[in-house]
């Protein structure tokens, strides 16, 4: 059985920080250092400087992601360089021309939703009514249900009002839309003869 690698604060702390700052996970850091993930966790618990280096490094990479997410949420501008290579009549390369274009990336709704749902959970959760109703007492739930029922009844009344308006405008009810004329029954045909 191979001997456990020994922890060296002068070596492992800086290395852990740099890997974590680049976004490496504990598993990836362990692989790079030739140890197990459990060893990384143990070192971070046993050696304060190692744990601190990991935490600070992860904070750096998290900050980069947060900044990128924020930029996607609000939109940003960047400069794009396009290098144009041209040749003269003899086939020789002319000096490279560089065209710089300012580009705009519009705000991304998905990033905005993610940001708000995590930063302002109470205001932006997906189903605030359902989540809040679980916390209510039975009497409060019943009152909320009655309120929602009244609200739904208001919507139904608005739909009925819409049918009345439609009847005024078109001269017929939506339930009595223009239907094809009925064909006379056999008995009616016999009476008309």
Oligomer: single chain
Q: Low-confidence spans: pLDDT under 50, at least 5 residues?
A: 174-180
Roughly how much helix do the residues carry, as a percent range?
55-70%
Q: Quick one: overall form?
A: flat
Second-tier CATH architecture of the largest domain: Orthogonal Bundle
SSE string, helices as H and strands as E: HHHHEEHHHHH
State the major sheet. Answer: 2 strands, antiparallel
Number of strands: 2
Strands in their spatial order, largest beta sheet: 1-2
Could you write a compact summary of the structure shown?
This protein has helices spanning 9-21, 26-33, 37-46, 48-74, 109-119, 121-124, 128-133, 138-170, 186-192; strands at 76-84, 97-105.
Give an account of the 3D structure.
With about 190 residues, the chain is mostly helical. It is built from nine helices and two strands; from the N terminus they run H-H-H-H-E-E-H-H-H-H-H. The chain has three domains: about 10-75, Arc Repressor Mutant, subunit A (Orthogonal Bundle), CATH 1.10.10; about 80-115, no CATH class; about 130-175, no CATH class. Residues about 175-180 have low confidence and may be disordered.
List the helices and strands and how they pair.
Blueprint: H1 9-21, H2 26-33, H3 37-46, H4 48-74, E1 76-84, E2 97-105, H5 109-119, H6 121-124, H7 128-133, H8 138-170, H9 186-192
Antiparallel strand pairs: 1-2
Helix pairs in contact: 1-2, 1-4, 2-3, 3-4, 4-5
